[in-house]
């Protein structure tokens, strides 16, 4: 069974005002003191955000427990410092982000200017193990059409600098300002993939391979495919669903590769349009069908994804769990829908943040 690991970026906010608060250094210091052998928490580009990474897990119940464990630990540390954590992909309230320390972040600010300053966004990255780079690239080629559906499911960033953006995932639009972000073309093999990333770094526009911000890529650290398109999900159950679907996509793609099934040859231009539609509409309107590339009701597209990965989910014993989590999400809506419902009831973005803080560490 393929192992799965999750990286989540969380927003640090003031416990009273709900405004983003630069607490990451203090939280990291507290975490290191309390659990010196645990290194789950990491700094991020801005001090108003915090990242944690789970260990690789085969069993999804264990992954769910670890996601909740680190969210709860982050919440406790932040509370001690007068703050809170919110699994929000962008801040609903206005913010002037504070850049983190270190030469890497300084280089980014010098090279990319306002783009760096504006990147206070929180995503969810899912790592699934692969047997080799060849298998990994074969997987990347075959999951491309389905990634936009993951974005629609996870969309959790309707507000930006105090305004409703009319998007469900405005984070995706902000993240796309990096020159290396987004979908990519098909690769003939692993050698072609590595040559492409090498050439990108050689332009001098990227600091290193860590800045190859493809929607899905080979990890430069682990023997995994890393799917990076999703917003951070409001509740742990949403994160678990995305992890289930990503493992299903990776396994399905690997099986197709071994069976000699060619990848769908969509152009990057079409994939970009599909991602834009997912970011704009979430689950509220039509999406672009991953295979036909035409407007299709969101529920139909989501079911197409589920049917695509069904055999893989059955083989890992995860089908019932994935079905239940997906049905719940389709019934209740994604994080963007929840945020807007709170705002429409009370008319306060501060209340939106408060409600999201409450939901961030809910049980699965």
Automatic annotation (TrEMBL):
By its UniProt entry, which SUPFAM superfamilies does this protein fall under?
A: Glutamine synthetase/guanido kinase
- Could you give a GO molecular-function term held by this entry? ATP binding
According to its UniProt entry, one GO biological process term is:
modified amino acid biosynthetic process
**What EC number(s) would the UniProt record show?**
6.3.2.2
Reactions catalysed: L-cysteine + L-glutamate + ATP = gamma-L-glutamyl-L-cysteine + ADP + phosphate + H(+)
This protein's superkingdom? Bacteria
Q: What are the protein's UniProt keywords?
A: ATP-binding, Ligase, Nucleotide-binding
**What job does the chain carry out?**
ATP-dependent carboxylate-amine ligase which exhibits weak glutamate--cysteine ligase activity.
Family listed: Belongs to the glutamate--cysteine ligase type 2 family. YbdK subfamily.
Q: Which PANTHER family does the entry link to?
A: GLUTAMATE--CYSTEINE LIGASE 2-RELATED
Q: What is this protein called?
A: Putative glutamate--cysteine ligase 2
Phylogenetic placement of the source organism:
Bacteria, Bacillati, Actinomycetota, Actinomycetes, Kitasatosporales
């Amino acid at each position: 069974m393929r192992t799965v690991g999750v990286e989540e970026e969380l927003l640090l906010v003031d416990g009273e005002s709900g405004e983003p608060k630069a607490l990451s250094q203090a939280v990291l210091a507290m975490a290191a003191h309390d659990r010196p052998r645990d290194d789950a928490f990491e700094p991020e580009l801005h001090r108003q955000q915090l990242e944690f990474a789970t260990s690789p897990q085969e069993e999804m119940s264990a992954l769910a427990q670890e996601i909740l464990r680190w969210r709860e630990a982050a919440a406790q540390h932040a509370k001690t410092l007068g703050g809170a954590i919110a699994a929000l992909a962008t801040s609903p309230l206005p913010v002037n982000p504070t850049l983190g320390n270190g030469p890497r972040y300084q280089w980014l600010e010098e090279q990319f200017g306002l783009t760096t300053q504006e990147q206070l966004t929180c995503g969810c990255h899912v790592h699934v193990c692969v047997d080799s780079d060849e298998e990994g690239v074969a997987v990347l080629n075959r999951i491309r059409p389905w990634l936009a559906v993951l974005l629609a499911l996870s969309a959790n960033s309707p507000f930006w600098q105090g305004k409703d953006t009319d998007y469900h995932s405005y984070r995706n639009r902000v993240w796309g300002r990096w020159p290396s972000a987004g979908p990519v073309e098909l690769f003939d093999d692993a050698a072609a993939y590595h040559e492409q990333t090498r050439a990108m770094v050689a332009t001098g526009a990227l600091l290193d391979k860590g800045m190859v911000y493809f929607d899905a890529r080979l990890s430069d650290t682990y023997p995994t495919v890393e799917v990076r398109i999703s917003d951070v999900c409001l509740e742990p159950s949403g994160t678990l669903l995305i992890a289930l679907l990503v493992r299903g996509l990776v396994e399905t793609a690997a099986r197709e590769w071994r069976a000699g099934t060619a990848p769908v040859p969509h152009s990057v231009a079409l994939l970009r349009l599909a991602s834009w539609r997912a970011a704009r509409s979430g689950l509220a309107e039509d999406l672009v069908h991953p295979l036909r590339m035409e407007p299709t009701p969101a529920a139909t597209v989501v079911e197409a994804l589920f049917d695509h990965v069904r055999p893989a989910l059955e083989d890992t014993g995860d089908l019932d769990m994935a079905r239940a989590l997906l049905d719940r999400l389709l019934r209740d809506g994604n994080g963007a829908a929840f945020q807007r419902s709170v705002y429409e009831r009370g008319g306060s973005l501060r209340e939106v943040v408060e409600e999201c803080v409450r939901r961030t560490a809910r049980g699965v």
